[in-house]
Amino acid sequence: MTHTTTFAPQALSLFITGTDTGVGKTLVSAALLHALARYHSRVVGMKPVAAGTELIDGVAANDDVLALRAASSCRVPPELDNPVLLPDPVSPHIAAARAGVRIAIPHLVACHRALAQLADAVVVEGAGGFQVPLSATETGADLAQALGLPVVLVVGLRLGCLNHALLTAESIRARGLTLAGWVANHVDPAMLAQQDNIDFLQQRLQAPLLASIPHQCAPDPRAFPLHLPPAWQ
Question: Pick from 129, 149, 138, 125: which is nearest to 62 by CA?
Fold first, then answer.
């Protein structure tokens, strides 16, 4: 299903997606927030749909949401930076059905619109991969298209990533969206020919490489440099 929006937020906004789940979208989103904070006084992360919670001081919380809040420089109402919080760590459409929740893309767009009025820069982290189902009829790609934001693609460097990266980039552009940059995340230290893979994607993705993140057991989003385009500064 196709969604469009005519709203153009004043804040710089970016949509972060990945070649798969578990490739480091939250790490990159937090790193972007720290990098953008050098140029913008009010930066905030947004996780429109988060699936999987644990109790922290008796309150249900999601690790990705907490990481984005920790990297943000301003506090916003939780119903804006995480409109949909689902208990089960499964695909959003399954988690929503189990929780009796309907994920409404217009509502998520409205929450982003409100955040863009409160911040100078908004980093929106999608759930899973670009085409992850949000319902029986809508996907994360529909959300990205409705938001209409430049997209940053996180590529988890492991066997199969070339196919996943090229397919995702093709899908992003098929939605009329701009692939504004990509990040190589070395998620598998045993992968062979990692630099060869990066070189290939630099030629084929036709978007700037913003960072190459080395494999780390406990990565710090403040510890590696991101090459921000001038338009984001």
Answer: 125
Cα–Cα distance for residue pair 77/111, rounded to 1 Å: 10
Q: In the sheet where 121-125 sits, what is the strand order?
A: 43-46, 121-125, 12-18, 151-156, 179-185, 209-213
CA–CA separation, 78 vs 11, rounded Å?
19
CB 34 within 8 A of CB 70: no
Among 199, 232, 198, 203, CA closest to 214? 198
| Domain assignment of residue 3, yes or no | no
The range of the structural domain enclosing residue 104 comes to: 12-232
Give the residue numbers marked as catalytic.
47
The predicted model scores a pTM of 0.93
205 is a domain residue: yes
Q: Tell me the CATH number at 26.
A: 3.40.50.300
Give the tens place of pLDDT for each residue, 164-185. 999 999 999 999 999 999 999 9
| Listed residue (85, 22, 27, 100) closest to 54, CA to CA | 85
